[in-house]
Amino acid sequence: MAGIRLNSAGRVIRFAHDGREAPDTAMPASTTVAVTLDEEEIGTVWLERPGPPGALDQLLLERLALATASVVERYGPAHTTMADPALVELVISAGTDEPARNRALRLMGFAAELPIRVVAVHSPVAIDRIGSLICPDRPVKAATVADVGVILATTVDAARFPPEVRAGIGAADSPDRSWSEARTALRFTTSRIPIIHHDDLGALSVLDRIPANLLQDNADIAAIDRIASRPEDLDTLDAYCTTGSLRRAADLLHLHHSSVARRLENLGRTLGFDLTAPPDSCARASH
């Protein structure tokens, strides 16, 4: 008899001499070999035979251990969408070395050759449900790290996010850089643009790298910060900037256009220029 046990699954598989699976009623092992992956012991293989071990038992088990590790590395025991947050944090942390990052990915069931996309999420919907929706047929894991939902996925279908979810999607090949991009993209999401790919931000992504003290010293940003404390005004400004039209903004806000016009007039006083004026007039007014 030959047997295999994986620590993560806790299941024992035994095979008879004819290759058929045998029931789990093992006799004492005559020879055992550890299964290792990325220098970590992930299980054990063994032979059960009456009498002393055979001359080639050790070599046979070493080959079986290598084959078992190869299968785990390629397919992985990814039975659920939820993952241990500590493993997810290892994957997305910039301070993690590559062997440790790869080991964490293997333990979660990601094969070595699979690309990993990282998504940062704010949502009332359970994070594991979101993961299953956006990546239904391929490996995906989810956890909450520092109050932000993290999804590790091999593919991301942005059209499948539930409507109440806000998500930023990273694009970098390395999970730690992809996580940084995903968090940046998440910061730019709004109720009207709830899902943002980092690549779509363009030059806007640079704003995330500007020191906070420089932003606080800018008069225009200070004015926008005052507007941000009034959700109704911020919603109006967002709708007008999104549509570029007074009437379309009114439709988006479900208000009469005269009400939106009054709001924009008040916003213009706070910002120091007329929002509805032509661009060159706004530029002259701001100077």
Secondary-structure map with pairings?
Elements: E1 2-6, E2 12-15, E3 21-22, E4 31-37, E5 40-47, H1 57-75, H2 85-92, H3 98-107, E6 117-122, H4 127-134, E7 140-145, E8 148-153, E9 166-169, H5 175-187, E10 195-197, H6 212-216, H7 219-228, H8 231-243, H9 246-253, H10 257-271, H11 279-286
Parallel strand pairs: 9-10
Antiparallel strand pairs: 1-2, 1-5, 2-3, 4-5, 6-8, 6-9, 7-8
Helix pairs in contact: 2-3, 8-9, 9-10
Quaternary arrangement of the chains shown?
single chain
Distance between the termini: 85 Å
Number of strands: 10
Order of SSEs? EEEEEHHHEHEEEHEHHHHHH
Number of helices: 11
Structural notes for this entry:
With 287 residues, the chain is α+β, with helices and mostly antiparallel strands. It is built from 11 helices and 10 strands. It has helices spanning 57-75, 85-92, 98-107, 127-134, 175-187, 212-216, 219-228, 231-243, 246-253, 257-271, 279-286, and strands at residues 2-6, 12-15, 21-22, 31-37, 40-47, 117-122, 140-145, 148-153, 166-169, 195-197. The strands form 2 sheets. It has a 5-stranded antiparallel β-sheet with strand order 3-2-1-5-4, with helices on one face. A 5-stranded mixed β-sheet has the order 7-8-6-9-10, with helices on both faces. A hairpin with a 5-residue loop joins strand 2 (12-15) and strand 3. Helix 2 (85-92) packs antiparallel against helix 3 (98-107), helix 8 (231-243) packs across helix 9 and helix 9 packs across helix 10 (257-271). It is elongated and about 95 Å long. It starts with a strand and ends with a helix.
